[in-house]
Amino acid sequence: ETGVTQSPTHLIKTRGQQVTLRCSSQSGHNTVSWYQQALGQGPQFIFQYYREEENGRGNFPPRFSGLQFPNYSSELNVNALELDDSALYLCASSLGSPSRGAPALHFGNGTRLTVT
Amino acid sequence: GNSVTQMEGPVTLSEEAFLTINCTYTATGYPSLFWYVQYPGEGLQLLLKATKADDKGSNKGFEATYRKETTSFHLEKGSVQVSDSAVYFCALLSGGSNYKLTFGKGTLLTVNP
């Protein structure tokens, strides 16, 4: 089975620009979550999608938005980029409904975003 | 809110030494607890997990026991190898309607031959 794949692997943007990051879920997984990992920190939850609907959001401003498609792949969009948005963005997929606990989250290798 | 506190690194050990990385948490309800490992240039891999009090998670020689009374989930390994060098993250999964993981800041482990 294929794992979680993210693209691109690296990206450099200028402050004020917009960026779209992409994630292909592991085969059969219907839930995808996005995390931001700043240098030297643990990942921070951005939001989660289940069956194409947002199903929870962390403490991130509205300029962070997402989509999940019918094939369960996903996009993370960030508008009006700021220098502090420089980080590793991780996508994780899992299988199951939100009412069940402790699913196994499978992470991709991330997209390294640098904002200059 | 939920939070995870890990011992600060970096931790440097010689091969075959004993490893302990401390992790304590604050959470409402009964969270599930996890250890993830991140090798250089890679994403996170689930190392082990425990879903209720007194459960012991184990994998690849690593172990951690869910201690509700001390709100702890310390990671241990009896004999580390050079290939164990990585960043280790303790995390909790809060109850509720989504799979939000709350992570600690991570502990860098370097094992020297």
Explain how this protein is built.
The complex is a heterodimer of chains A (116) and B (113). With 116 residues, chain A is mainly beta. In chain A, 0% of the residues lie in helices and 49% in strands. In chain A, the strands form two sheets. In chain A, strands 2, 4, 5, 6, 9, 10 and 11 form a seven-stranded mixed β-sheet that branches. In chain A, strands 1-3-8-7 form a four-stranded antiparallel β-sheet, with no helix packed on it. Chain A is globular. The mean pLDDT of chain A is 90. The model of chain B has no long low-confidence stretch (mean pLDDT 92). Chain B is built from no helices and twelve strands. Chain B has 113 residues and is mainly beta. In chain B, strand 5 (32-38) and strand 6 (44-50) form a beta hairpin. Classes of the chains: A mainly beta (116), B mainly beta (113). The interface between A and B is medium-sized, with 30 and 25 residues.
Low-confidence stretches of chain B: none
Low-confidence stretches of chain A: none
Class by SSE composition of chain B: mainly beta
User: How many β strands of chain A by DSSP?
Assistant: 11
Beta content of chain B comes to over 45%
Global morphology of chain B: globular
Write the element-wise H/E pattern of chain B from the N-terminal end onward. EEEEEEEEEEEE
What oligomeric state do the depicted chains represent?
Answer: heterodimer
- Most residues in contact: chain pair: A-B, 30 and 25 residues
Mean pLDDT of chain A, to the nearest integer, reads 90
Specify the number of helices of chain A. Answer: 0
Shape of chain A: globular
Radius of gyration of chain A, rounded? 13 Å
